[in-house]
Amino acid sequence: MKADSYRRIRFQRPCKTFPIGSLQRVEASKSDMGFEKQIAYARKVVPSATWRALKLPPRDPVHLIIALADHFEPAIVPDDGQKRVPRPEQERRVEWWAREYPKVVDGWRDHDGRPLVHTYFYPAEQYDQGLIEMLADHCHAGWGEVEVHLHHGIPHPDTAENTRRVLTEFRDRLALRHRCLAVESGSSTPSYAFVHGNFALADSAGGRFCGVDSEMQILAETGCYADLTMPSGVYHPAQTKKINSVYECALPFDQAMPHREGHDLAAGDMPRKFPLIIQGPLVTDLRRTLSSAWPIFENGAITLANPPTLHRLSLWKQAQVRVLGRPDWLFIKLHCHGMDPTQKDAVIGDSFLKFLAALVGGAADRKETLHFVAAREMANILLAACAGCDGNPSDYRDYRFKRIADLPLSTEKPSPVQEAVS
Fold first, then answer.
1. Taking the alpha carbons of 322, 301, 51, 315 in that order, is the dihedral positive or negative?
2. Residue 69 phi/psi, 5° resolution?
3. Spatial distance between the Cα atoms of 416 and 1, rounded to a whole number of angstroms
4. Which of 36, 47, 245, 339 is at 20 to 30 A from 185, Cα to Cα?
């Protein structure tokens, strides 16, 4: 692989998406979707999402393991996914975020003294060495971790060959040049977590925004240990019927959308198929639905229209995403677009800070023990729960997949791959 191989990657721009969290945005999404598809979505989601909302909330003390998956796109143009802002503006955005985010969150720590970190899912098709270097420095200082995001299949379906090349080259850049991602003991192949752009994981949006039926197989073969794409935006066609779960795919990886069925993770039963599927909450917000003509769904999207609140926290807990047999460890995967300037208040501004203060300050009264984690750490804690581990979930942040940044630098002669990306 030549050092300039990234210049030959087929760059494709993401389409407009709806990080929906309010009635206004739900109406916008429904207007983009035919009535029959709206009904199909409702049939998939409403029964389970409403049943989960009607169940009794957790009353016993719980550990809340919270990860924030940031679809981190410095080039984003709000409401027009076909455009990108100029490179100087991208650099300004990343510099500002790396400087200001630690100031905002530093005073509010979890049970283990850790800040609320972001997992920065950076678009593979937008690789920029300088921007990634700034972001990697921010993460190595303790404010998050970088993982893999991908928009493709726009405007035409992608190919398996191109998808594999883009993922492999981006993975190796992150690992070998920037010391991001993770490895397992005894392995030299970088491992990573993944979020699919436009939610179309494994060609799950009817051929749009992907086009690669075997994408899950490619993810598995290139070192992906966990996918955190789901749930989709509300009324998005890629949404699966299976919700509020952490699981192994039950269908063959070479099929489209193998994550539509799955085997729930359970204590005493270690998973064998990777990537694991780590879903965020998707429940009916009964309080808001009562005053609306349409069901209002809570899907863990942190947006300006729907900033984080304690009411939303109660719904995230109500989803009860957990390993079977480990009911006191609740996994809350949220998502946001940190680089979207229109979302600033919800992800770093006053509404965010107000929520963070209430989250941390009131945890003891709500019988919650908070653990702020990166996606990698959440996957490790899930695996520890499957192994039957108990006690403090934070003891298992590095249970299986360990940060490359924490490993000693090798003094051996660089491999051909290392030389190519250096």
1. positive
2. -85, 110
3. 8
4. 245
Rg over CA atoms, the chain: 20
In the block, tokens 């959308």 appear at 257
Check if the beta carbon of residue 136 is closer than 8 Å to that of residue 110: no
Per-residue pLDDT of 77-119, as tens digits, reads 998 878 999 999 999 999 999 999 999 999 999 999 999 999 9
Residue 299's closest CA among 366, 234, 353, 202? 234
Model pLDDT for residues 268-292, shown as the tens digit of each residue:
999 999 999 999 999 999 999 998 8
Rounded Cα distance, 207 and 196, in Å: 14
Tokens describing residue 166: 């883009």
- Above 60 in pLDDT, residue 15? no
Please tell me the pTM assigned to this model. Answer: 0.90
272: tokens are: 């064998």
The token pair at 394 is 């934070």
| CB distance 324 to 267 below 8 Å | yes
Q: Is 117 within 8 Å of 172 (Cβ atoms)?
A: no
DSSP E strand stretches across 221-268: 224-227, 246-249, 262-264
Task: Give strand pairing partners of 248.
Answer: 263
Question: Tokens representing 190?
Answer: 């970088």
